[in-house]
Amino acid sequence: MVKETIRVYARVKPLGRRQQAAIYSVDNDETSLSSLEVIMPHDLADGFVNNKRESYKFKFQKIFDQEEKQDVVFDSIAKPVAESVLAGYNGTIFAYGQTGSGKTFTITGGAERYSDRGIIPRTLSYVFNNLQKDSSKVYTTHVSYLEIYNECGYDLLDPRHEASRLEDLPKVTIMEDPDQNIHLKNLSLQLASNEEEALNLLFLGDTNRMIAETPMNQASTRSHCIFTIHISSKEPGSATIRRSKLHLVDLAGSERVAKTGVGGHLLTEAKYINLSLHYLEQVIIALAEKNRSHIPYRNSMMTSVLRDSLGGNCMTTMIATLSIDKRNIDESISTCRFAQRVALIKNEVVLNEEIDPRLMIVQLQKEIQELKDELALVTGKQRTSELSQEELLQLDELIETFLQDNDPDSTLDVGADIRKIKYCFLRVKQLMKHSKMSEEKLLSQHLPEEKDIGKEAAEEELKKLKEILQQRDNEINILVNMLKKEKKKSQNALFQLNAASCGTTVLEQSLSLNLDESQSPSCRFSLKEEKDFSSSVHRLPFLSRQTGGKMSLGCQEAFEVFKRDHADNITIEDNKLLLKQRFAEAKHLGEKLNEVRNRINHLKGEIIQRRIQRAALAVSSPSEELNTLDLVEEKLRMQMEEEKKSYKEMFGHLKGLKIEIEHLQLLMEKLKMKLQKDFEVWWSQEAINLQTQQEKPETVSSPNSATVYPQCIKSSQHLSSDSSSETTRVSPNENPPRKDNSITSSNPTLKTRTPPKSSTSVPLTGDNQADADILAFIKARQNILQKKGLGNK
Ligand code: ADP
Ligand code: MG
Description:
By secondary structure, the chain is an alpha+beta fold. The chain is 50% helix and 15% strand. It contains 21 helices and 23 strands. Strands 2, 6, 7, 8, 9, 10, 11, 12, 13, 14, 19 and 21 form a 12-stranded mixed beta sheet that branches. Magnesium ion (MG) is lined by residues 103-104, 220, 250.
């Protein structure tokens, strides 16, 4: 067992363009802890802190200042934890800080550049690289991704892709076994046998997280996300399994609302917006206290799940993320204070080894056989489990002699053979029973008058026994039925389990394989890698799903304009370009690889040819020279080695490229989704504005008085915080027939907002729908132009 204090690091987020830096200094001492000093300006100190302290100093393991990059953060923080997880210990890394301070950026990564990959993708890469290198053990890796929002857990790795709200995801609940171990019911553990599969799962989780979040319910700032890598390892032939877990945790924003006290706003009394962070702090305070026996883990789901990570069996690391601009200085100080308390907690790390019972049985059976063999060697007899007929007869004789012997000191000696001893006891018991029965018989012969009474009693007894028999029969029938049901259930469960373990296959199947323009046929490259590439292209049909598969023309055009002006579009275009480049590189490399392979094959052919020739020559005209080393062959061999080396190098490079391409594709999907979401929010806002305008009769600008509800509004959740407001699902066939101003799709979950009954709206027909769309678009366009200052009123 190793006692470890929780390591605490700080990371300062780069300042935004319009932000003003607070006064702070970082002293990264190589030999001991680093320190961060924050100076609170006098005016602020007056407002927030009653004791008017000016300078605050905090100690950290290391402080990553604004310019530090993701790779450095990974190397210092996550690598040591990943290493101990590979060795069989549990690990946790959690990011704590206010919203916008860089928690998600640090844990998952930025959505723009490959180099912005965060701790999760880098750890996955590191873990799988190490597992591949170690052939001394058999490893199995699973991942899970849990989101906790409002004390409810949700499985983010739900492969059905149907979630449009958090509530659509499978609910995860906590269960505690008699040993007080926590189990998470309904959280799927997905098998990930390589980096690519694990990254796909991470992406699936992030996507579910993003889709489930609506602007009204900013889940990402109010929820905790826990990505867990589960590793089990076993040496071949050994019954011992090592199991370890690595939790990578993105906590909810730690911002607080200041409580108004007598002396104004008191920094020290500010309250968390998120209640479970309050409970986390309570757990941490309790753990820091000496001699405290009760730690209130059970108060919230998050503290229950992270129970081992806090003061338990886990190597834990915390990253305090800080926004160091002037306006956020009080929150940054709160974060640092929390970190100082966390740094006091000691965890006890133990190796998680357990014995596999099946393997144990095999081992024991082997041991028994060995002992039997040894015994046979010593006694000179092969011992079987049964006694021979001859031995039994001998024993019977011995027993009889013993029983008939009146000498009280007589003994029955059968030797040190447990089989014989057992047989003797059994035989004596049988003999005793037999003699008792004969005694009773004798007695009944002497008492004939009691015979009738006995007969009656026997009949009574028979009746009772029959009844009992009937009862047992019934019971057996019931049990057989129950058994059948259970069997069926377990078959179902097995089937589901299989389905879950094939999660990635399901995932792949549901991936849409539309080819993006960036993947034109000319960008393809040969080699079997190509298949892997195309299978991961465009995993999810986001756009069609998000819009319910239909977008009216007006809406579509507005989307095009919106997209063109959106900041992310530039990044998408950049990434597209980069992706094209990478594909071209990969294609080029693939071709080169093929060439090298051909050359190797050719050289191989030449060497074989050469050998045949020399062998034939040796037979026809033997000479000394033919027995010596063939220099030509040696040269060919060296050439081949060279080619092989370059083949290996290129292959490694291609593999790296493949991962980068994968990542870029994921980033683009994410950005596209974000764009789409932003558009939906904006569009629904426009719809509200338009509606309010049209409800005022004097501002009606179109002769058509239909109220416009743009068709691409996903759900009314965007419009109102009241989730019970009217939302209806209309299947496409129920839609009134429209002129061909819509792109059709097979997705049946089109959601439209029905107009409120009180409004003066008329049902939209094909014609006025088109008009309404055009009207909506003109309005929307005017709005965009106005925002840009180009409006023509
Ligand atoms: P949080 O998860 O704490 O709410 P985010 O990770 O979403 O915060 O960060 C907010 C914004 O700041 C994001 O746009 C993110 O890309 C950016 N950001 C955060 N940390 C860094 C950093 N170290 N370098 C560059 N950009 C960062
Ligand atoms: Mg975040």
